[in-house]
Structures are given as structure tokens and as C-alpha cells.
Amino acid sequence: GRGVDKADLKKLGADFAYTMDGEIAGNIEDETFSADGATLTIEGVSTHPGFAKGKMEHAIKIAAAIVERLPRDTCSPETTEGRQGFLHPIGISGALEQATIDFIVRDFTDEGLKEKEALLESIVKDVMRDYPHSTYRLDIKPQYRNMKQVIDRHPEIIDNAMEAIRRAGLTPVKTSIRGGTDGSRLSFMGLPCPNIFAGEHAFHSRLEWVSVQDMEKAVQTIVHLAMIFEERA
Asked: How many domains does the chain have?
């Protein structure tokens, strides 16, 4: 979510932009997840393991208990699709006295983000009841927001892109991204920026690949797009 933080919009001098970072040929995407990052820090109680009964409160075990209680069927990337969001641990580290869990929180609405963050904190508080001498800190940081909030105020940038896709010989399909793009940040920085297909598949896996033929269609699309903006100016 920070890839364009240093972009100089004044130097670019554009009213609108498009990222070329999509999947299936013909797709135009005007919506992304809204995203927060959450860091949970657990402070346990350390003592010599030979004399630990009734005293030790193990931060790693507390962290493991919290991860174990995360909803599996309704709030995990591996069990959700479409417009469902998720609460996803992406890293865990620590030792007996202190442990940290990093999460990403995703939803298409800001309200959905808040609900998932409240759920996380309720799970943490419930687990911590069994460890009365330990403490926790939950830090939430915004990452990016659903670009549809901005793009819907500029329907012509979607209409023009869909017409360009048609002129490239494809059927345009308007979809949502279960993720984010630089367009999310750019849109809220003042440069409305939907996402056009580029023929990418199996994102972020070891088998990620791109179709040369779809890339050629993407090039045709953006050439037509420039022509359409000129025609309709």
C-alpha cells in the first residue's frame, strides 16, 4: 500500500490514471478491499521453568491460543470469496516473555474492517482472562481504502475504459479486486485510478504466470483508451 507514496501528482499532470495490473482479458476493476494492518504484542510472565508452576505465563502459548480461536469458516482467506472479507495472521514471532502477531484485515467496507478488528480484540480479551498477570497491546494502522469511493464520482473513466475494451475485440467485465493496487492509494491522493487487465494469473504463488496474448490485448486497449479520451474531450 505504500508503492506510490512519493508519486509527484503535480509533475504527472494527469486528471485520471489507470493501473495495468489485472487478471482476465476484458476485466476492468473499479473496487478494491479496504485494508488495515494490526500488530498484537503480548507481554507474558517469565520465570525459571523449574519453578514455574503457578507463575509462568508463556507469551508464545498465549499467541498460539489467540490464533487457534480465529474463525476458520467465516473470516479466513482460505474459506472466503466474493465480497467476504477476512482477518489474516501473516507473521508470528517471540519468546517466553513477549510475542508478536501481525495481521492484515480486509473488507470492502470500513464498517466491515471495524467489525473484524473488534472481533480480534474480543478474542484476545477472552484468551487473556486465563493469564491474569499478562498484558497485551493492539495497534491498528490504516493501509489503503476501497477506491470505489472515489472512482464512482468519475463514471467517465470507467465508461471510456469499457469502450476501449470493446474496440480491442473483447467483452468488458466490471469486477472487484480481492486485494489492492497502487490505484487505491492514488485515488485517495487525488488521482482517480481504476485497474485494467494485464493477463496475470495465480497471483503471489510459485506458479504465477502471465499471458502474452492478453498483454497484447491490454496494449490495444490502452491505445484505444487514449483515442477515446481525445474523441470525447
From this structure: 2
pLDDT of the chain, 233 residues: tens digit per residue: 678 989 999 999 999 999 999 999 999 999 999 999 999 999 999 999 999 999 999 999 999 999 999 999 999 999 999 999 999 999 999 999 999 999 999 999 999 999 999 999 999 999 999 999 999 999 999 999 999 999 999 999 999 999 999 999 999 999 999 999 999 999 999 999 999 999 999 998 999 999 999 999 999 999 999 999 999 99
Do residues 123 and 214 share a domain? no
48 lies in the same domain as 130: yes
Domain extent for 218: 9-32+147-231
Are 102 and 17 members of one domain? Answer: no
Query: Is position 4 within any domain?
Result: no
124, 101 Cβ separation under 8 angstroms: no
CA dist 118 to 41, 58, 191, 232, Å? 16, 24, 32, 47
Q: Which residues pair with 139 in a beta bridge?
A: 39
Evaluate the CA torsion angle 160, 163, 167, 169 in order and state its sign.
Answer: positive
Q: Which amino acid is at 3?
A: G
DSSP characters over 55-97: T-B-HHHHHHHHHHTS-SSSS-GGG--TT--EEEEEEEEE-SS
- Give the DSSP H/E element, type plus range, for residue 176: strand 173-176
| Coil vs helix vs strand at 198 | coil
User: Is residue 3 a part of any domain in this protein?
Assistant: no
